[in-house]
Amino acid sequence: MPACPQCRGDLQVLQLPAHYQRQVAVDACKACRLVWFDEGESMRIVAPGWIALLSWLSGHGLASRPWHGQPLGCPHCAQPLQLRHDRTRYGRFVVQGCPSGHGSVQSWAALLARRGLVRAPTAAERAAMHHEPRAWACLNCGAPRTDGADERADDCAHCGTPALLVDLPRLADSLRPQAAERPTVSAGRLATWACHACGQTLDPTRQATCGSCGHPVMAPVLADLQPLLQALAAAWDGPPRAA
Questions:
Q1: CA distance 231 to 218
Q2: CA 141 distance to own-chain centroid
Q3: Where do runs of H (alpha helix) occur along 59-174?
Q4: Which partner from 91, 99, 134, 235 sits 20 to 30 angstroms from 145, CA to CA?
Q5: In sequence order, what are the beta bridge partners of 103?
Q6: What is the pLDDT of residue 48?
Q7: Strands (E), 122-236
Q8: Cα angle for residues 28, 25, 232 (degrees, 5° grid)
């Protein structure tokens, strides 16, 4: 079994649904928040597989050994990984790839960017991030934000990544069956959670702000995605799987 490129611990194997009723074995390290894809693996994962992978990611808290962007080595051949600009239909992003073609390592933010699921916060959202009662985790490395009341300090103090948010409506739209024909997640059943500021029930797939207090609808930690991912999994007639 290959070792994590950063901490050298064992990678956890996640069996994810792929095209043609097959599965793809993806390697992940929850301590470092890194995912290793062998060459071509990420292109074979279907929507239920991405739901299962995101469910696994969101089931873990802050990283115990967050990666801060230093160069890493290939878990298969130990060659230094090289920065590579990848592109999908959702845009461009940077990964560290093996020069011999064994694959690439991605942070969780890069993983989300691969499907166009991250965006920069608005001014109102940026201000709300600094007043959240719960710890706000960097979407890239998992380290808690430590910038205090300085609303200009938007970069993560650990890895330097700018503040990013999960694009909740786009996540719901891109991972549900027949998205164009369904007005809400899971055949009409709303995916709801409580407003972080006042507790009002809201639908994160259709509301940008809370109708009661005006607080932006955001996910401070990936665990907040669980209700939405469960609704998406139900739409595909089965629970998310990541063994």
A1: 17
A2: 11
A3: 108-114, 123-129, 168-174
A4: 91
A5: 38
A6: 92
A7: 165-166, 193-194, 201-202
A8: 80
- The residue written with tokens 């430590």 in the block is 146
51: enclosing H helix or E strand:
helix 47-58
The SS3 call for residue 113 is helix
pLDDT tens across 128-181, in order? 877 776 667 788 777 776 544 444 457 887 777 888 888 888 888 888 786 545
Could you tell me which of 178, 35, 167 has the C-alpha nearest to residue 90?
167
Q: What is the dihedral of CA 135, 141, 146, 148, to 10 degrees?
A: -70
Question: pLDDT tens digits for 84-125?
Answer: 887 777 767 778 899 999 999 988 888 888 888 888 888 888
Sheet of strand 91-97, all strands in order from the earlier edge strand to the far edge = 12-17, 23-29, 34-38, 103-107, 91-97, 82-88
Rounded CA separation 144/155 (Å): 12
Task: Write down the residue that tokens 């969780």 correspond to.
Answer: 108
Helices (H), 101-201: 108-114, 123-129, 168-174
Distances (CA, A) of 225 to 1, 59, 186, 211: 30, 9, 15, 20
- Tokens linked to 137: 């985790």
Q: Which two tokens stand for residue 166?
A: 């999960």
**β-pairing, 34-38 with 103-107?**
antiparallel
Tokens matching residue 61: 């808290």
Compute the distance between CA of residue 174 and CA of residue 185 in angstroms, rounded to an integer: 11
Residue whose pair of structure tokens reads 């409580």 in the numeric block: 194
206 CB-near residues (< 8 Å, 6+ apart): 169, 184
What residue type is assigned to position 206 of the chain?
R
**Cβ(203)–Cβ(238) below 8 Å:** no
